[in-house]
Amino acid sequence: MTEPLEEPLKIVVTVEVTLARPSEWTTAFGVEGRSEIRRDVKAYVGRELSSGGVFANGEVDAEVTLR
Questions:
Q1: What's the CA gap between 16 and 48, in Å, rounded?
Q2: Which distant-in-sequence residues (6+ apart) come within 8 Å of 64 by Cβ?
Q3: What is the reported pLDDT for 1?
Q4: How far is CA 44 from CA 3, 4, 23, in A?
Q5: Helical residues (DSSP H) of the chain, grouped into ranges
Q6: Under 8 Å CB-to-CB from 25, ≥6 apart: which residues?
Q7: Is the pLDDT assigned to residue 36 strictly greater than 80?
């Protein structure tokens, strides 16, 4: 059975980032504290994902949401 092509398709991708030395993030971006760095890294990865490639250039219409 073939699925309808125009139904929205949700894809969940899990990304794990391990900072070996969180102080490097503080040096590079001025963000201090573990929870603040965690929040900033998450926002950074989300911006990079949604600002490049087919999602950013309009080739593919998609909504990128961070959880």
A1: 15
A2: 46, 49, 50, 55
A3: 63
A4: 35, 34, 16
A5: 22-29, 34-50
A6: 19, 31, 37, 40, 41
A7: yes
Helix (H, G, I), strand (E, B) or coil at 34: helix
Mean pLDDT, the chain, whole residue set: 87
Place of tokens 């900033």: 40
pLDDT at residue number 55: 78
Tokens of 47: 């911006």
CB contact at 8 A, 54 and 60: yes
Residue 32: which residues within 8 A CB-CB, separation 6 or more? 26
Specify whether the CB–CB gap between 43 and 37 falls below 8 A.
no
| Band (28; pLDDT cuts 50, 70, 90) | very high
